[in-house]
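REQUEST
  id: r-88c1
  op: predict_structure
  target: Type I restriction enzyme, R subunit
  payload:
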Amino acid sequence: MLNQNPEQIARDNIDKQLMACGWIIQDKKRINLAAGLGIAIREYQTDIGPADYVLFVDKNAVGIIEAKREEEGIHLTSVEEQSSQYANAKLRLLNNDPLPFVYESTGEVTRFTDYRDPKPRSRNVFTFHRPETFFQWSKETKTLRARLHDIPVLPIDGLRDCQITAITNLEQSFKEQKPKALIQMATGSGKTFTAISFVYRLLKYAKAKRILFLVDTKNLGEQAEGEFRSYTASEDNRLFTELYGVTRLSSSFIPDDSQVYISTIQRMYSILKETDLDESAEEENPNERTFEVKTAVPVGYNEKVPIEFFDFVVIDECHRSIYNLWKQVLDYFDVFQIGLTATPDNRTFGYFNQNLVCDYGYEKAVIDGVLVPYNVFTVETQITKEGSVIKLGEKVDKRKRLTRKKFWEAIDEDEVYTGKQLDNDIVNPSTIRTIIRAVKDNLPAMFPDRVDENGIFEVPKLLVFAKTDSHAEDIIEIVREEFGEENKFCKKITYKSEEDPKSVLQQFRNDYYPRIAVTVDMIATGTDIRPLEVLLFMRDVKSRSYYEQMKGRGTRTCSVEELRAKGTPSAKFSKDHFVIIDAIGVENSQKTDSRPLEKAPGVSLKDVLANVAMGNTSEDMLTTLANRLIRLERQLSEKDKLKFAEQANGFTINHIVKQLLHAYDPDAIEKIEQKTKGAMRGFPPIDIDAAIAKGKQQLIEDAVAVFHNPDLRDFIVDIRKKYDQIIDVVNMDTITNIGWVKDQDEAATTTITDFKNWIENHKDEITALQIFYAQDYRHRTFTYKMIKDLSEKLKTEKPLLAPLTVWRAYEQLEKTNGSTKSELIALVSLIRRVAGIDSIVTSYDKTVDKNFQDWVFKKQAGTLKFTDPQMQWLRMMKDYVANSFSIDRDDFDLSPFNAEGGLSKMWALFGEEMDAIINELNEVLAA
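RESPONSE
  id: r-88c1
  status: 200
  body:
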C-alpha cells in the first residue's frame, strides 16, 4: 500500500470517484449484482482479455472504464480504440450486446463516449455519471444528441431576422455536436427572447431534461424569470410556465421537478461547494471586482447536483463572469453551453471555440432599425480635468462618509487634489452643479419638440451613472435644486436605496415620475427601459464591454405611443436616437477588454471581504484582509472595537488577524503534516496526502468562518466609511469644453489640417523648419531661439493655431503620449508628428527621456561605465535639452549647472570626453 505504482494510484482515484457517484465497486471474485443499482467490477474477463472496469446497471452490463496512469492523460484519445474493443467484446458468462457507455480515465482526467450517439465522439467530463442516469438513458430509444436531429424547421412568424439566424444556426451547431456556441446580439435586440425561444424548442422537440440559465446578478435573474413567465409559445399559444416548470434559485436547495433553472453563477458555485450564500453576494457583477484568486478554490463532486443534472447551460452576459473562479461551474457539468453577449472580447471567442453562430452587433441593429443610434455631448470642466487646490488655513466642511454629518475645520496644509479624487476623497459641489446646470441648459436644444401644452419644456427620461451612493446623494440634491423640482422628480435606484429599488425602477420605466434616475450599479446592465433618452456619465468605466453594456440602456426603440404612455406625454415622434452626455471623459478614457485580476493592492476592503465570503481564500487574499484589519484596528475607538467583537462571535480583530495569518503559516502547516503522518502510519500515501490537505483546508476555514456573516462584512465596510470627506466650497468650477462630439471632431480635424498646411507652406521660409526638414533626423538639433521665433510667427499669423490649441485638437481625435508643459515643447512635438517622425503626438520631454535611456543603456553595455556623479550630471543635461532643445558649453553657466560647479565641474567629471558627450547628447536626444 505504501509503495503504490502510478497505475494503482490512478485506480484508487477512480474508485473514490465511482463511489462518490453512487457506484458499488466489487472484485471479480466476489460479484454480487443485487448489491445495488450500479456495480463496477474490476478486471472483469472478456474474450480479448480483462477490462479494467465493467459497469453494470440493474444487473445488466452497460459500460467500460479503461484506466490509465496519470501521465497518460495527454494520450487518452489514443486509448479510445482499445476501450472500444473491450466495449464490443463478449463478457465472460454473458451473451451481451456492445456496451454503449465508455470511459477512458486517469483518475485526474476522464473522457466519455456514448456509442449510441449518431456520430459517437468522446468528451471530457468532470467525473463519472451516476447509475440512475445510465438506467434512464438505457430506456430511451434515442440519445439527446440523436434527438437534436428531430428539431423541426423554425417557424419565423414574429421573429426578427437576427433571432431567426441565431436560433437556426444554433440548432445546426447542436446537430453537429459542437459543445459550445456563442450568440452575439446587440443589447436591446432580444437576446433573452431568443434564448427562451430556443430553450422552448429544446424542451419540446429534443426532450431536454433540464436547462440552466446562468446570470451574474440577482437583478438579471429576476428579469429573466419575468421574461420566461410572460413568454407565449407561438406553436402552442400557452404561457411557457403552463408547459414547463421555471425555478429561480434563491437558496442552496434545488428541486428536481422543474425544467428551467435560473441561477446566478455565484449561487451555483456555492451550491456545488455546499456553502451558504447571502443574497447580497448576488447583487454585484463579479466582473467589476478588481481582484480574483490566482488559483481557484476547487469545486468537488456534489451528489445532489451530479454532472448530468442539466443538459444545457445558457450563460447570459457570458463575456464577463465565466472566467477564473467561476469557470469551474461550467467545467463541472456535462452539458452543451450557449453563451449570450452583446460585447464579446477575445477571451469570449476563445472560450466558445470560435463557434460564433450569430454575429449581430450594435451597428447592424441600428441599420435594421432594431436599435436607435446615439450622439455624444461633452461637458468638460476645469476641475474634472485639472483638479484644484485648497490653500492652507481655509475653513471647509468635512463630512462623515457614513452618516454624512458635517463639521467645519481648517485645512492644516495645502490640499492638492486631482479630478480622479472627486466624489471620493474630495467633494466639490460646484463641479456637480456646473455639470447639472449645463445639462439643464442644453436639454431644450437637444429635444426642441418637448414642450407641453403650457409651453413648459418636459425633461426627457434621463439616467445618471454615479461613482458611489454618496455621490448619487449629492447629485440628487443638486438636480432637484437646479431643476427647481420636488423629491419625486429625481430618485436613486441602487441596491442600497431606502425606497424599494424595484418599485422605483418600475416607476422610472412606466410612470411620469421620476424624470431623472441616479444609479451606481443596479441598472448598469441588462435592464430594459425603452423610454430612456439620455444617459449622463458622471463616472468613468475602464472595461470596454461593461461600458458598452451601460450604453445599451438607451438603445431600445420606443414608439411615439409608448413614449407618451410611459412618461413623456409631449413626445411628437418615436424615439429615433438617444444622447450620451459625457461629463467625465468616459468616451475617451482608455478601455481594456478585461481588468488585471492578479494583485491585491488597491482592491477595496468591500471587494476583499466579498472575495473571502465567496471562497477566495488564497494566501494573497487572506494576507491582504489581515493587513486591512490591522490598519482598521488602529483607527477604531474602544466602543467600535466592542461592536466588532459582538458581530464576530466574541473574537477581537487581533484574534482574527492571527488566525488569518496562521492559515498559511509554514510552521502551522508543518505541524499538521507531522501530526497526520504520525496518526496515519501505515495508511496509503494518497490517503495521508488527502488528510493533510483536509487539515490545511480546515485551518483556512477556521480563519474565515466569521466572514460568512454578512452583518459583520457590512459592519466592517460601514465603520471604515467614518473617514471624512472634504467638501470644497472654495474653488468654483467652470466649463472648459461643451458641445456635440461630432462638431468637436470636425473642428479638431479642421484645426489639424490648417496647422499641417501652414507648416508645409512655410517649411522653406523658416530657419528652424529648413533645418528640421533638410537634415537626417539623427542630426537635427534645435536652438531655443529658433523655436521661439517659429512659435511667435505662428501665433501672429494664425492665432487660432497656437500650439496648445493644436495639441488639444490631436487629443480630441487620437491617443496622445504625455501632456504639454509649454507651448514651445508642444510645438516641437507637433512638428515631429506632422513630419512623420512620431506616429502619435508625443510630448517632447517623453521622447528625450526614452532616447536618453536607450543611449545610457548602450553606453553602459560597452566598456564605458558612468559613475553616480556622472549620471546625476547627465540627467541634468537631459532635462535641460528637454526644455531648451539643445545644449552647448555656454549653457553650463546657467541654472541648474552653475549651482553645481558649471563648466569646470563638467570637465572634472568627463575630462577630454566632455565635448564628445555634449555633441552626442545633442544628436541622440532629439532623434
